[in-house]
Amino acid sequence: METCVCHEGLVLDGNTCIPPSECGCVFRGLFHGLGEEFWGDLTCTQRCVCDAEQRQAVCQDSSCGIKEECRVEEGIQDCYPKIFGVCTAVGATHYETFDGKRFIFQGTCTYLLVGLCEDTQNLVGFQVLVQNGHRSGNLMSSIAVVTVKVYNKTISISREHPGKIMIDEQLVNLPYHYSERKIVAYRDGQDAVVETNFGLVVTYDWYSHVTAMVPSGFANALCGLCGNYNGAASDDMMMRNNHVTSDPDAFGSSWKVTDVPGCGERSTVECSSTVTPSRLQQEVSGKGCEIILEADGPFRACHGHVDAHQYFQSCIHDSCLFPDQEEGTCPIIALYATTCQAAGVSIGRWRTDNFCCKLGYVPCPSNSSYELCSHTCGADSATCPGRCREGCTCQDGFMLSGDECVPVSHCGCSHHGVYYKEGETFYPTEQEMCQCLSGGTVKCQNISCPDGGPGKLIDGVFRCPLQVSSTCTATGDHTYVTFDGMAFNITGTCSYILTQTCTGDNVTSFTVTIQKGARQKGKVSGIQSLSVEVYGVSLTLKQGERADVMVDSISHHLPTTLSEGQVQVYVHGTGVLLHTDFGLIVHYDLVQHVMVTVPQTYMGRLCGLCGNYNGQGNDDFQLSSGQLAPDATAFGSTWKTTDMPCDDTCPKDECPTCPEEKVAVLQGPKYCGLLTASEGPFGSCHRMIDPIPYSKSCIHDLCMTGGDTHVLCQNIQSYVTMCQHAGVTVGAWRTPSFCPLACPANSTYSLCTNICANTCAGNATTCPQTCTEGCQCHQGFVFDGHRCIPEEHCGCFSNGEYYKVVFLAFFPVVRHLCPFPLHFFLILIYLLPFFLSFPSSFFFFLCPYLYFSSFVFPSLLFFCIYLCFHIVFFFP
Fold first, then answer.
1. To the nearest 10°, the Cα dihedral for 325, 327, 333, 336?
2. Are 417 and 402 in contact (CB under 8 A)?
3. What value does the mean pLDDT take over residues 312-323?
């Protein structure tokens, strides 16, 4: 065939004839010119050059940059800027998948936002989980917790801890590094950012906005609420069973990972379908959604880059659901602002003093101010992406340290990848205590407990283990667990000796007695009262009476100390705690749960329903004769008191039974099964406190009461009390729709609080080391045994007894009369009108008498002065 032929002495190189001396190299079947650089493999890990002298390819290890990826464009393989897929969720709750599919899903359980679902070579496995929660008592929900699981680490960012993150259940400051920066977490503007070395980027603003970004190498290998990232939005709502649906609720529920107490898959609140879009627009006019579309507004420069209408519609939707501007309108507008800035568009100032003035969930710290274009990333500048976005900027001379702006000279320390503030004490291990000193220096020392053994970190604080002890419980309708761990059931409704000393050698004697309530149809038999006899006094707590204790039949306000502090009684969490100087601890929830803890010195010295405490559960039914009772009923009858007639057991035809089909339902994760769920909020407690007896008690009680939710909550609370008493940190389990705990004014619910440390009694009581769930008084308020009051309204604590303020406005000196018996003082107040009926001359004889009596009763002096001054100067 006809063609072009190179002249003699020349050879063909592509479309050019060249001398043989200028020929290049052949590498893996491909020809490369002299000096040409190329990639020697398909993953861009070898960079080669055709060497002119050797006439062959010379290669060395190389890689693409951090923000680049290896791919082929227009037939050429090279390192190109990474292409990211972005998935977002915001507000209540609007999702947009990697491929642009938009939907609304209001499920309140824990769901897979995105994760690697295809086992693909060279891709690192990860999961991003989201959990919705309610805000401000509103029925609508938004994302409250974001969890990233990667490289065997669990990183959680929650609304509960603004400005911080959790690493494997340990609360830490930002920034954070792990394993040569395989994971980096830092703060960027108002967001917490988690980045990995393979390109995953997750952000959350501690409020309602989360984003997940993945490089294009993960295309078609992902699953979850963010879709599969295959470039087609039509199949993004593919459920876990690989079926595509058009129902957001069905799609969302298919990606549920775990149940949360009280969670559900469907929204219970919707905008009225009769409200037209135009009408909605009118309704929200003035609330601010229209600012997104304004042709001359702060976002006008962005309209050509980011579609404003989609954000406007989302804003209208949430404004309808959230009547509060901050809850509904502002998060969507803030998202549009962030998206515009990420696209490189400069926007105008849109927040004002009376419009969306609250910047997310994390307020600007001291020594900082809001900026439309901030670059605050914290003390670790290496992690700062440097992009412009609204946020808080520290003043000149200050730098972000954790969640506060401090002078540059007071920056903290980084130790093992975790950042600590200056002066902060921390415990890297259970044998080491460290402190962050000025200048970024960390000083550490070994620590141990008095016995030389290791301590334990509880909520980040080093604590030595308490004296070896054991706990017995009476809980629910009929369940008991002995000191040696044997669980049994007694259906009797009598007064029982729970435990008492049976041999008195070298130990302090005591007796703990409970009175069970009469059984009524559809109700459980709770514990009507608890009595403790110790140090010659008898203390009685009654069901529902939280603020008082009977001491030898006389009512005392709590807290109370007796025998010069040998016995202390005070409110602890939702119940009352009694403890003695020899280690006896009794906790009563004032409903149905009693917990008795004794030190090891009482081994083999006790008897009662709690057993003999000898370390062997198989002989806990031992009677005083040494023989074993044939069954639990006979054992219980032995420890009845003779206070009043009662039933040892329920009649056979009235004993409650639970059909198997009901048991199956009540064992589910939304009922009593929550107690035994290994991945549930109490999974961390299972190794310390066996949940089985409490789960069985819960099922029995719920079956008796027809599924009464209050009874379910009470049973779960009993197990939580046991776990927290053992020093175990449990997960959050109450929600506004599931077992909410009502708190008095000036207080809020806390999963871990210690009421004892903030009471009108000051430091008069010795508080327990462990926390418990309950109501925590707001700053400036203290607990007076019944409610949270301003500290200046407290009564007095004298001689081990607390006296509340009575008639404060009427009688200003009452707070000075606390050492005087309160009931006698009230008698004087009652008789005051009678005294005033006498002529004033009478009081010239009475006052000296009262004066000299005040030497015996000093408080009478105040009454004398007040009374005589009032009579002499105001009456004839």
1. -170
2. no
3. 76
Tokens standing for residue 505: 């050698």
Q: Is the pLDDT of residue 59 over 50?
A: yes
- pLDDT tens for 423-441 read 888 888 777 888 999 888 9
- Answer whether the bond into residue 559 is a cis peptide, omega within 30°: yes
Listed in sequence order, the residues at least 6 apart from 127 whose beta carbon sits closer than 8 Å to its beta carbon are 112, 114, 115, 116, 147, 148, 149, 150
Distance CA 63, CA 78 (A): 10
Cis peptide before 175 (omega within 30 of 0): yes
- What would the two tokens of residue 619 be? 């002989």
What is the spatial distance between Cα 538 and Cα 357, in angstroms, rounded to a whole number?
58
Q: How far is CA 798 from the centre of its chain?
A: 38
* Alpha-carbon span 616 to 604, nearest angstrom: 10
Amino acid code (one letter) for 247: D
| Distance, CA of 333 to CA of 423 (rounded, Å) | 39
Question: What is the C-alpha radius of gyration for the chain, rounded to an integer number of angstroms?
Answer: 36
CB 474 within 8 A of CB 527: yes
Helices (H), 551-631: none
- Return the pLDDT at 275: 42
Q: Mutual orientation of helices 709-725 and 692-704 as an angle, nearest 10°?
A: 160
User: What are the structure tokens assigned to 537, written together?
Assistant: 């006094």
Full-model pTM: 0.53
For the chain, give the percent of residues with pLDDT over 70: 79
Give the pLDDT band of residue 255 (cuts 50, 70, 90). very high
Cα 24 to Cα 281: distance, rounded to the nearest angstrom: 69
Helix axes 308-321, 277-284, angle to 10 degrees: 70
Q: Residue 184 carries which side chain, given as an amino acid letter? A: V
Nearest to 375 by CA among 92, 383, 472, 161: 383
The whole-number average pLDDT for the span 563-585 is: 88
Q: Are strands 256-258 and 510-516 parallel, antiparallel or unpaired?
A: unpaired
For residue 57, report the phi and psi dihedrals to the nearest 5 degrees. Answer: -75, 135
DSSP E strands, 461-566: 461-463, 469-475, 479-481, 487-489, 495-501, 510-516, 527-534, 537-542, 548-551, 554-562
**Residue 27 pLDDT grade (very low, low, confident, very high; cuts 50, 70, 90):** confident
Instruction: State the Cα torsion 635-641-643-647 to the nearest 10°.
Output: 0
What's the mean pLDDT in 648-676? Answer: 83
Q: Where are the alpha helices (DSSP H) in 757-859?
A: 822-836, 840-853
- Cβ pair 60, 52 in contact under 8 A: no
Are β-strands 94-96 and 84-90 bridged in parallel, bridged antiparallel, or unpaired?
A: antiparallel
Main-chain phi, psi angles of 852, to 5 degrees: -70, -30
Q: How far is CA 586 from CA 156, 478, 575, 851, in A?
A: 36, 19, 11, 45
Q: What are phi and psi of 160, to 5 degrees?
A: -70, -25
362 or 46, which is more confident:
46
* Eight-state DSSP code of residue 360: S
DSSP type of residue 149: E
Q: Are 122 and 220 in contact (CB under 8 A)?
A: no
Backbone dihedral angles phi then psi of residue 604, each to the nearest 5 degrees: 75, 5
| Cα angle, residue 666 at apex, residues 474 and 725 outer, rounded to 5° | 35
> Which pair of structure tokens corresponds to residue 5?
């032929």
Report the C-alpha gap between 196 and 316 in whole angstroms.
36
Long-range pairs, 705-712, Cβ under 8 A, ≥24: 705/522, 705/523, 705/524, 706/522, 707/666, 707/671, 709/739, 711/524, 712/671, 712/672, 712/739
